[in-house]
Amino acid sequence: MSGYDLESVDGRIEALRRMLTIRVFDETAGDRFADGEIPGFVHLYIGEEAVGVGTCAALAEDDYIASTHRGHGHCIAKGLDPEHMMAELYGKADGYCNGKGGSMHIADVDAGMLGANGIVGAGPPMATGAALSIDYQDREQVAVGFLGDGAVAQGQVHEAVNLASTWDLPAIFVIENNQYGEGTPVGKQHNVDNLSDTAAAHDIPGITVDGMDVTAVAEAVGEARERARAGDGPTIVEAETYRFRGHYEGDEQVYRDDEEVERWRQRDPITSFKERLIDRGELTEDEFEEMEAEVEATIADALEYAKEAPYPEPSEAYDDMFGEPVPEIEEFARQAQAQTDGGER
Amino acid sequence: MAQAGVEQTETMTVREAIRQGLREELERDDDVYMMGEDIGDMGGVLAVTGDLIDEFGEERVRDTPISEAGFVGAATGAAATGTRPVVELMFSDFMGVSMEQIMNQMAKMRYMFGGKTEMPVTVRTTEGGGMGAASQHSGTVHTWIAHFPGLKAVAPGTAESAKGLTKAAIRSDDPVFVFENKMIYEQQGEVPTDPDFTVPIGEAAIEREGSDVTVVATQRLVGESLDVAEDLAGSTSVEVIDARSLYPLDTDTIVESVEKTGRLVVADESPLSYGIHAEVATRAMENAFFSLDAPIQRVGTPDTHVPFSPPLEDEVVPDGDDVRDAIDRIA
Ligand SMILES: Cc1ncc(C[n+]2csc(CCOP(=O)(O)OP(=O)(O)O)c2C)c(N)n1
């Protein structure tokens, strides 16, 4: 398994640590974005940590995930390194995408992370594709496609689920129902009560779980994984959760009131899981504080690293357009290099 | 260039100009309504629609689910059956999601049905790099639409054009795509306030007269080219044309200008290969070859996607410096 199987005490502690790591990473990213240090858009996962961690806890290390625009949590849950993640947010040369992607496109295919995605609903087809490779080569993995409640309205999502179910592919679709697509509440986007009901159209299981409870998510995804590995095709798991912050940093959130946010904050997935572990005698307050200090140090180091890291050279803008050389691109790169060599314009 | 007979103007941003154009058309014609993601209470992700929902209500300023293929297709069907939808696509990169409905339905319906339907649909969308939004939110794809038979494409460079073309698009019985560069929403300009003011689709605007070099620009590069022209005044006299209508394209204005100056720079943010640049350059050559005194120069995005990291984005997204370099090469 992934090294944090929730059946074991160590696994549960590790799950708590990962949730905390996501929380601190995202709080830090939010602050740095507010300070103008991080360009572009930043969509934080704060409040939804149990979904990503619960899902990845139920996966094997070499399983695949395809993520969304709100992808930092998925990356950390999957085991990506916060240093290279933060470097990517800063647009630095040794960020996960060499500075080409930024927050919305962090990817590490070797680590089974098929990319955060700027296009809503584009993850599920990627997951179906990964499941196709797995099936085709008789491998032992599964592929998870994460999507938001808003993304459920995308045609490509339904096409992907249909393909995976028709071909019995080892895919799992995890809907993170955080109640909003940008500013539009889920009730104004869909005519079904539970988004997992869409599974019925494909004659596959659809289940809705408490997305604030990491073990509930892990259990559901675990069962879906067994089903997928048994050759019985995909499952849709809907996790009901909530984002504590705006859609993106800077969002004024005119579409909801503080009272609603507060109500959901009472169900903080980290606090509640921590308290369960303490109740069961698997963790002490002191140990939790120690964990917190470690996590904060890790993220502080990642931030330091990201800030110090060098930017890419302008000519690197032309790297990786194609696998084979193309004269047009080489000419652009040559001109950029000449300009760099010749100093500032 | 102000339209003849239009006197009253007000200073406003491109964003305000578009919103005013939308408001006037919603007021003028009950068959006009808007749809898109978060254009209602949120006021549009780039704040263009603002509070229009308060004035016109949810029936006419409709929030859609995140389903571009669905609502662009619905707009196509609606336009064929008597209403005049105005669709907002948040970022032009998302056009990919709805491309089937655009290419095979919207563009072909009138023609293929032997003229048995009108297609009065307007699609507004945003383009361009410059804000670290990375490859999936920074594209400039207007060549796709301008290239595709049966679709009209406009891309304003000033507040006045933005309002006038938005209104003309809504009044048109053809599918018109309005490409708004997101980096110029805050750019200010004088805008006619007459509710009957429109900018005819297919007319370019000479924004500055000059005699040595013609710069045919679009969108953000119009303003940046005007700044360059101002800087160079005294040494090189630069004529700046806002092409603003990409299809149909105002060949006459471009050709007359090239006949006068003998030199042409085409500045458009889309990727260089097979882009708007090539079309403008070809029309100039076809019609004014013997007036040309120097090779035509292109300014655009090299054939890459727009990268996230600031130094990489600066490298590929064209700006006034690139226009100046192009002028220097031939003037
Ligand atoms: C195809 C496409 N359309 C629109 C957008 C703009 N957009 C980005 S995130 C978002 C909301 C997504 O909502 P949901 O899927 O529920 O995910 P959440 O943000 O709630 O995690 C929208 C509309 C996009 N990125 N891609």
Automatic annotation (TrEMBL), chain A:
Keyword Oxidoreductase carried by entry = yes
Task: Name the source's superkingdom.
Answer: Archaea
Query: Which cofactor names does the annotation list?
Result: thiamine diphosphate
Give GO BP annotations, semicolon-separated.
pyruvate decarboxylation to acetyl-CoA
Q: Report the InterPro entries cross-referenced here.
A: DH_E1, PDH_E1_Alpha_Subunit, THDP-binding
Stretches assigned to the Dehydrogenase E1 component domain? 18-314
One Gene Ontology term of the molecular function aspect: pyruvate dehydrogenase (acetyl-transferring) activity
Which SUPFAM superfamilies does the record associate with it? Thiamin diphosphate-binding fold (THDP-binding)
Mind listing the UniProt keywords for this protein, alphabetically?
A: Oxidoreductase, Pyruvate, Thiamine pyrophosphate
What this protein is called in its record is Pyruvate dehydrogenase E1 component alpha subunit
From TrEMBL, chain B:
Q: Which cofactor does it need?
A: thiamine diphosphate
Q: Which CDD domains match?
A: TPP_PYR_E1-PDHc-beta_like (cd07036)
Q: SUPFAM superfamilies, per this entry?
A: Thiamin diphosphate-binding fold (THDP-binding), TK C-terminal domain-like
What GO biological process, any one, is recorded here? sulfur compound biosynthetic process
A GO molecular-function annotation: oxidoreductase activity
In what residue span(s) does the Transketolase-like pyrimidine-binding domain sit? Answer: 12-187
Q: Which keywords does UniProt give here?
A: Oxidoreductase, Pyruvate, Thiamine pyrophosphate
- According to UniProt, the name of this protein is Alpha-ketoacid dehydrogenase subunit beta
Source organism per entry reads Haloplanus aerogenes
